[in-house]
Amino acid sequence: MFIEVFCPIFILGYLFFFLLSCMSSLYILEINPLSHAHVATSLWDAYSGLLSHQSMILSMNSSFVDPLLQFETQLKIIKSSFNMLVAIPSFDKVKKMGTSADDVEDLVNLYQNILNIYEETLLILVSKDLYKLQILKEMILWMSEDGSYLQERIMVIITKVLHFASREVRGNTSVDAPCLGALAAELCLLCSHADSSITEQASFGLHYLLHIAKCQTGKNDSHEHNCFPPSSDVAFLSKSFQDKSKISQRIGQTLLPSLLTDFVWSLLKKLSAFDYKIASDAASLLKLTLENHAQKLIMVSKIVDVIYKQLCENSSHCMKHAMLQIITLLIRTSPKKVIFQLMDYPVPINDTLTLMWQAAGSEAKVAPHVLKTILLVLKGKPGERQENLMERRRSSLDVTNMMPVVASQALCTLLPIASYKKAVAQFFPHLLMALMLQLFYSGDLRLKRRALKHNQYAQDALRALLNCSGLQEVDIALKKKNCWNQFSQALYQQHGVQLIARTLCEFKFPQFPETLYYLYKLSVEGPRRSEDSIVTVIFLTELLNNFLKDPFPEEFLVLFRNWINDPNPSVSKLSLQKISSMAPVINEVENVCSLLICILDAFLCKDVTVVMRALLTLRRLLAKLDKVTYSTLCNRIAYSYCPLMDHSNASVRSIAIRHFGELLKDMCQYTWMLNSVIIGGLVPLILFLEDKEKRVVEACKHTLEICASQLKWPISYLFKDNNYSFELVVLSICNNLLTTHRNHITDLISDSLGFLGSSRANLRRASTVLIGYLTKVGGCLLLRDEIEVMLGAIERVLRDEDPVIKELAEITHNIIRGVLHTTTSSTLKQNFQRFFKFFYIKKLKPLYNYNLFFKNQTDNPMENKDIKNDK
Ligand SMILES: *[C@@H]1O[C@H](CO)[C@@H](O)[C@H](O)[C@H]1NC(C)=O
Ligand SMILES: *[C@@H]1O[C@H](CO)[C@@H](O)[C@H](O)[C@H]1NC(C)=O
Ligand SMILES: *[C@@H]1O[C@H](CO)[C@@H](O)[C@H](O)[C@H]1NC(C)=O
Ligand SMILES: *[C@@H]1O[C@H](CO)[C@@H](O)[C@H](O)[C@H]1NC(C)=O
Ligand SMILES: *[C@@H]1O[C@H](CO)[C@@H](O)[C@H](O)[C@H]1NC(C)=O
Ligand SMILES: *[C@@H]1O[C@H](CO)[C@@H](O)[C@H](O)[C@H]1NC(C)=O
Ligand SMILES: *[C@@H]1O[C@H](CO)[C@@H](O)[C@H](O)[C@H]1NC(C)=O
Ligand SMILES: *[C@@H]1O[C@H](CO)[C@@H](O)[C@H](O)[C@H]1NC(C)=O
Ligand SMILES: *[C@@H]1O[C@H](CO)[C@@H](O)[C@H](O)[C@H]1NC(C)=O
């Protein structure tokens, strides 16, 4: 219902308004403003215009219209009222125009009424909604653009409206007046206006505004409340509000954070004002406000961004200085926000940003915070996907993290600043390691192209760090060693890190204790990435090598022990290398056993080079280890070699087999402990006699001889002159087993069965022969179930693609079947086994004739070729 009635009124009012405003502007153009009739007419026109504007505004107070739209329309109408107002002839002229005293009085009354209507309209609007105080701010802007002679009168109106509003809100703590900040900024600037009458009005206005603001903060000092200030205070008030530091203090104390931010924001925009006086007034107000109240500001990063954009534009030198000073003030209270904002800009940092960083760096008090923030960013890896560290700042659009590069570059600016010296010294180890890591990351091949360029910043920052930490000589020495030039090469990274660490040690860098402590802390906390561990291990190793005597304290040893089984092979190897160097003092190390066991765990590593390094390290340590400790572990170590004897890498096989033999030799006084271990390794030792790699064969021969001598088996003659037969070795060993280790035969058979399925023909062949002999000597010990399993396994070999293996498998098959026929029942056999040792079994004769092929005679064409290759 209401809308239907209201809308036509609204539209009609609008039409009327347009017509009127067109007409009045025509009049003003055409007539001579100085003639009496025309002055009167223009005053009447203005009067009726303002009246109709007022009625339009009042008819628009419906809650059914969108408030924003409503406000915009009202503002538009107020603006045209304002234009009418400033177009009327000046008061003095009006007075002069009067033809008689009555006439003058009429005209003056009319004049006054015009102003009253305008004021009344504002009061009505503000009384309904304090939000509309914003109109006052707009009025000040219009006023300054216009330069009207009416400025003072307008200021009076503004002040009156504020006075009215301040009375309205008395005792109300929920005042919604979001424009106070911006309005305060305008009034503050007017407080230093050249015209003292304007200054005075602005001071009053500000005074009332602060009353309103006080209500918002719930501050209740009622004695100040009920006033237009007493006349004695007028002079005092306007004087005290010309003192910028007092203004800024009261503003800073009174305005709510969001409004204070608006205040700062408005002043910031004034810095690029064309009028130099306004700009410099704004600058000094900003400085005073931020010096004491910056902690209250919100949206600091946005302010920094505005400053950046203004600096990039063409601003005068003075204003540049003022803006940079703001950065310095902001960083005092919000170092993190400012730093993160500065790091948000793309690399490389250009001159403008460098100025901003320098400004940020000129506040020594916050240097530790700034460095901490930068260190936090340096934990990131350039180009890596964002992690939760900075999720606040980045949208999904920008997934790669270039902040660490910016951080490195920023350090180049910050580190040499004199006021940072103390903080830099405090964070030396953190900065050193963070920058080393950045250098290290930049060698990552995936990043290569961009990294080459970015590498430079981390390097420059590192050099600056050395330079400002009293380590210039280290920098020079590294330069001589050509360290810096090579860092961009991917393969150089590890060596580069080592070189830097070593050079620092050479010069006995005084920051050693805190660096060592920091490294320790880093290691205990655990790295963020595996690269981190590499750098830490290299550094720590160098420090320990240079400053501490081996064996270094248990605390550090624990770290190296854990690194042995690090997922990163480089870390494992570095750690093993350091541990290996401790062989001469191994018996002084606490917890040797757990150290050795960690090395054994590395045998299971997928990386061949780690396994190799672990084998060699263990051997070096065992050679020096005292025999009592050794004996407690020798079984465990020996068993750890067994799986490596069957390793896919021939070097690992041969080393494991040799070291197994070395262990037996070391432990020759403890043979009784090792018999079962020897039996455990026997099957691979025999089978790998048939390995294609000569070094493996040699290793087997060597170790078998050691085994045989431990077990007192007279078989070493078999290997004389490099002329031996595999079958004769097997035969001989089986004969010896028969007399000394009968009860292990079943185990040996089950070990050998595993090799029947090997992908390597030489192993299938050798195991076929070995199983045959073992069955022959141990058949009577086997249970029927076991024999059936064996038959199943050998039957698969009967279908082998290799004809020689097929032939051998047939023989073995027959042997096993023969045993099966002589077997009666399982229960009988178990009884039989119990009394087995009382039976005599006849010694074996060769079964396969495979035996008579000697190593350097023709066997089959394939084999022949392999042998030639071996040689
Ligand atoms: C609009 O303002 C007039 C005059 O102040 C008042 O009488 C009327 O009730 C107001 N209408 C609404 C909808 O607020
Ligand atoms: C202001 O303080 C007076 C007394 O000091 C108290 O009576 C009044 O309720 C307070 N008003 C508010 C809004 O806190
Ligand atoms: C305070 O002002 C708000 C609007 O600004 C008004 O809604 C509220 O009724 C007022 N409260 C008092 C106690 O005057
Ligand atoms: C930059 O400022 C100089 C002098 O202040 C002026 O001559 C030049 O036109 C300005 N350039 C721009 C793009 O505003
Ligand atoms: C800095 O870079 C910005 C864009 O990122 C550019 O607008 C500005 O002109 C540059 N300033 C200087 C001094 O190079
Ligand atoms: C090291 O500092 C000196 C001044 O103390 C300076 O001249 C030199 O350029 C700096 N070198 C580097 C690499 O930062
Ligand atoms: C065995 O490992 C070593 C060390 O990694 C390597 O040099 C060699 O080529 C490997 N041999 C084979 C046969 O894979
Ligand atoms: C190798 O040894 C076998 C017996 O073990 C012997 O019959 C043969 O003559 C030897 N051959 C050579 C070349 O020494
Ligand atoms: C291998 O055979 C060759 C003749 O074919 C013989 O001279 C040599 O002694 C044999 N034994 C060894 C170990 O080479």
Automatic annotation (TrEMBL):
InterPro entries: ARM-like, ARM-type_fold, HEAT_Maestro, Maestro-like_HEAT, Maestro_heat-like_prot. The chain crosses the membrane at residues 6-29. Keywords: Membrane, Repeat, Transmembrane, Transmembrane helix. Pfam families: HEAT_Maestro (PF21047), HEAT_MROH2B_C (PF23227). The keyword 4Fe-4S does not apply. GO terms for cellular component: cytoplasm. Residues 151-371 form the Maestro-like HEAT-repeats domain. Residues 561-811 form the Maestro/Maestro-like HEAT-repeats domain. It comes from the Eukaryota. This is Maestro heat like repeat family member 9. It comes from Propithecus coquereli (Coquerel's sifaka). The lineage of its organism: Eukaryota, Metazoa, Chordata, Craniata, Vertebrata.
